[in-house]
Amino acid sequence: MPQAKTPRATIQDVAALSGLSICTVSRALRHLPNVSEQAQARVSDAAAKLGYRASSAASRLAGGSTGSLAIIAPTATAWFFARAVEAAEEVFADSGYDTVLISLRNQPSVQRKLFGDLAGLSQRVDGVLLLNIALSEPEMAALAGSGLPVASVGMHDVPWDNVGIDNEEAARTATNHLLGLGHWDLAILAGSETGAPSVVTASERLRGFERALAEHDLTVDPDLVMAAGSSIEGGRLAMTELVENRRMPSAIFAGCDETAFGALMALRDLGLSAPKNVSIIGIDDHQMSWYLGLTTMSQPVADQGAFAANLLIERLHRSGLPNPPSSHVLDTKLVERKSTRRRR
Predict the structure, then answer these.
(1) Bridge partners, residue 143, by sequence
(2) What pTM was estimated for this model as a whole?
(3) Which of 29, 193, 197, 337 makes a 20 to 30 Å CA pair with 229?
C-alpha cells in the first residue's frame, strides 16, 4: 500500500519551529546580511529538521523569461501596502527578479484596463503578486487562465496561493476588547467599499464588528457606522462628523490604524481626547501606533508580503509540477496601550 505523501514544508513551518518571523527566516535562508549568527543557526537547524530548501535564484526559468515580477496593489501610498511591497521586493530581488509595481490608484477604470489586457502584462512579467485586490469573477477567471503564476495577500477563495489574516476574527477580537471594558455604545469607522471596491478587508472587518455585538445581544446603530476609508484624512472627517452631527459613543473601533490616527487628530482639534472622552482601537500596529499610544490588533504585514513572494518564487521554479494552491492564515494579537480604558 503506497504511503501518503508528506506535505512539503513551507517557510511558515520554518518560522514556527525556529520562533522567528517569516521575514527573518527568508533573509536567513538566502544568507542575506543583518541576520545574527544565532538566528542563522536557528533557521538552518529548523530547515534541516523539516527538510525545507529555499528556491535558488540560479533555477530561474530559462527561455522567454522577462526577469520581472509584478506587484499589483490598490494604492501605493497606504502604509500596509508599502510595507508588504518592500518585503516582497526583497525576496524577488534576492531571487534575481526585478519588480514592476502597479498601483490601481483605487480607480475601477485602471483595474478594468489592466485586467482587460493580461496578454500585454504577460509580455512584461513572469508572474503576479496581488495585494488585497477585489477581483470580479471574470477578472479572476481571466487571470487564472492567463498562464501567469499568481500569488496573493489578503484574498479569499482564489485559485492560487494566498497568505493573509482572519480579518473578521481580528475585528471581533478588537470589538470584544471594548465590550470587555464595559463599553456597550460602540461606533465603527469603517472602510468604504461602495460601488466597485478595490480592496476586500473592509466588509470582513465590519462583519467581525457586527458579530461581536450580536454575540452580546447588541445591535449596530446605523448612525454610528461611519464611512472613513482607510486614510488619516478619512478618519479625521468621519470622527468630526460623528461628534458634531451625530453623537459621541463610549468607544470606537477603527477599521485600520491610519483611520484611528485621523480620529485622534479630530478629537484633539475638538478639545477632546482618548481614552478620557472615548476609547479607540485599531487594526495593524502601524509603527506610529506605539508613539501615539493606540491600542490595536497587530498583524504581521511584512511577513505576509515575504511569505506570498516566496510562494510565487516556489511556483515559478516548479512550473508544470503538481502543486495545488495553498492558503495560509497568519496570527494577529491584541496590543493594549493607552487609547482604551474601562468605562467609568
Answers:
(1) none
(2) 0.88
(3) 337
